[in-house]
Amino acid sequence: MNEERYIEFDHYIANELSAEEKITFEKQLSEDPEFASSFEIFKELNLHLENKFGNANELKAFKKNLKSISAAHFKTKKSKVVAFKPWQYAIAASVAVLVGLFVFQNINPSFDDYNNPEMATFIERGDANANLKLAQDAFNAKEYKTAIPYFEAVLKENKSPEIQYFYAISLLEENQFQKAETNLSALKSGTSVYKNKATWYLALSKLKQEDYKSSKEILLTIPDDYEDYDQVQQLLNALD
Amino acid sequence: MANATLHPDQIYIEGLANNNSAIIQSIYKKFVPKVIHYIRNNSGDEDKAQDVVQEIMILLFNQAKANKLQLTCPFDAYFFLLCKRKWLNEIKKSSNKGVTIDEDLPSINESTEEMVTETEVFEEKQQLFDLMFLKLGDKCQEVLKLSFTIKSMEEVAEKLNVTYGYVRKKKSLCVGQLTQWIQETNRFKSLKIT
């Protein structure tokens, strides 16, 4: 085995060759196809091993998750498979069509099913910031139209993700979609604790506008460690 | 590949790489029924379909993790073709018993064909690399496993109770050994791996 060669490969990858050595090395790469192909394989092996050992835990977690999702999928599928005789298929199909005709109009999930804004609890006593207290009270009383100008006043002085989040919900409740979505999108691309919640509300905003496709696309970007993930899951299923 | 445009269905690939349950579930819901249907109509059953689907999902996870999966075609066609070819290979392997293949050849888009081939080559390479790895001596396997798990070679040296210089050299030579074997295999199979 050409030991020197592989030691040199390793040094080149780790960027440990001197400037001159590097030039010689690269010259050989471009002139000697056998040397170049050997280096390509060496590099690719490094990547492969990095992936194999570096992601071993992630792969394990993935396999475990996959197995349980697969089992759940195949189980529910199996329970649905009942041995039908051909004529029973015909009956089942016509019943399905009839039922379909009746429920088709409201088969889509609606915003109201998922609209449960949490309570705003910014301050306990009113003396700290009058506008903030008024915004909080109006919001909790579901008087969103009243709350909006108070939130705007607060945000002028202090633009915190928390206030922005509750402000955006108020806008959404009042069907001011564009403004609501601008604020939610800003939170979504930020790093605050409201990131996932804002993404969820962004999906609800699309839902309220009956843009089911966009709603779904947004839902799919929410990571499954989000605290209210079961809601996400539920809506995704309803949208399918 | 770099100039081909990324298909929006790349979200499924990213979802797999991030182990995102909602995405995995939606793949099962949307794309797996077609695979089950195909396998059942071609000498298989639901359990076989379940295995094929899992194998392909793991393959896609690995390829995505290696940053080598940029989808340029719809996921639907790509996924179905991968599963289908995996299944056909499997029955070919055990085809002393009679099999029925219900071959309906829908027009397969060129970029789908290409993507599928890329994934299959990736799988073949992985299998070859893993096979060669097992041929290495215990010491080499241990050094490589530690080097690529721990990353800091100083720590690896400490753990193995050898010098930094030794472990660095050992690592290069072990990967070198693999390189040499694979080069020989390539010549043998006249199969261009890189």
What tags apply to this protein structure?
heterodimer; A: 240 residues; mainly alpha; Serine Threonine Protein Phosphatase 5, Tetratricopeptide repeat; 2 domains; 13 helices; B: 194 residues; 9 helices
Describe the structure.
The complex is a heterodimer of chains A (240) and B (194). Chain A is built from 13 helices and no strands. Chain A has helices at residues 3-13, 19-31, 33-54, 56-80, 86-103, 111-114, 130-140, 144-157, 161-173, 177-188, 195-208, 212-219, 229-239. In chain A, 73% of the residues lie in helices and 0% in strands. Chain B has 2 domains: 10-110, no CATH class; 136-189. The longest helix of chain B has 26 residues, at 110-135. The radius of gyration of chain B is 20 Å and the shape is elongated. Chain B is built from 9 helices and no strands. Chain B has helices spanning 10-17, 21-30, 32-40, 46-65, 75-93, 110-135, 138-150, 153-160, 164-189. At the A-B interface, helix 1, helix 3, helix 4 and helix 13 of A face helix 1, helix 2, helix 3, helix 4 and helix 6 of B.
Q: Which structural class do you get from the secondary structure elements of chain A?
A: mainly alpha
* Alpha-beta classification of chain B: mainly alpha
Unreliable runs of chain A? none
Q: State the total count of DSSP E strands of chain A.
A: 0
Query: What is the CA–CA distance across the termini of chain B?
Result: 15 Å
The number of domains of chain A: 2
Order of helices and strands of chain B: HHHHHHHHH
Average of per-residue pLDDT values of chain A: 84
CATH superfamily of the largest domain in chain A: Tetratricopeptide repeat domain
CATH topology of the largest domain in chain A: Serine Threonine Protein Phosphatase 5, Tetratricopeptide repeat
Portion of residues within helices of chain A: over 70%
What profile does the largest beta sheet of chain B have?
A: none
Which CATH-level-2 architecture of the largest domain in chain A? Alpha Horseshoe
